[in-house]
Design goal:
Layout lengths: L2 H11 L31 H10 L1 H5 L5 E5 L6 H11 L6 E6 L2 H9 L6 E5 L11 E5 L7 H14 L5 E7 L5 E8 L2 E9 L16 H4 L7 H15 L8 H14 L4 E2 L2 H4 L3 E5 L7
Helix pairs in contact: 2-4, 8-9
Length: 285
Amino acid sequence: MSEADGDHKRRASLSPQRRPPRLAAGRARALGLPTRGTTNANRLRRVDRWLLATQVPRLRDSARPLVVDLGYGSSAVTTLELAARLGAEVAGLEVVGLEIDPARVAAVAADRDPPRVDFRVGGFELAGLQPVLVRAFNVLRQYDEESAGRAWDTMRAALGPGGLVVEGTCDEWGRRSAWVALDADGPLTLTLSTRVADISTPSDLAERLPKALIHHNVPGQPVHEFLRAFDAGWAAAAGLTTFGPRQRWVAAVESLAAQGWPLVGSTRRWRHGEVTVRWPAVAPV
């Protein structure tokens, strides 16, 4: 069966309610649906700080340090912020912002200024690029779990050698975030990040879990057990509230590590209201 025949059968298998609208001429290869497009300056600062702390060596080691920001919305502010933050650490960095809506691309391309940032029409297929790093934030909230999984597969298949996809979601102000890091073989880690003063318990972040996990936050599933253990550690560290919410967060994360949860990263990341756990420990069963 040819690739075209396979695509035809996949489209035919979608119900009328789930079948995406037919794309206009010139957009046939751009896979996905437009997002609402809303964003705010600094909304993605938490994931950007994580990228700076963990992914700069990956970019520096690449012959072509190409980064794709997928689905930047009606404003390119967060794409420009990403370019500025990473560009200060990576010589020769290239950043391409992709949007499936040509009108959004035309609007930002008309007045673009930074020469190392390009804007193009594209979706989960990444416009034929082979980036080292993909940041895909707030682009899969409107999809069901199965469709989101296919989007993961499409993005992973388009990566360059040693590439990484960082897919996640955050609230409007970027104070509550969660993201998954994936390479060509599949998911690697789940990261939760928050302004700790704004939460009552760590499980408040459950509303930001990726599509692959959000419907599995029920008893008997690993991600539910992870959040339950996190809440228990948070409760046990209530006495540290006097010293500030960050101290309480760090103590709760230390309790997770003591219980054997496979955490990644140093206590320095924890102090930023962040915790990263290896994917197999929270993956649905």
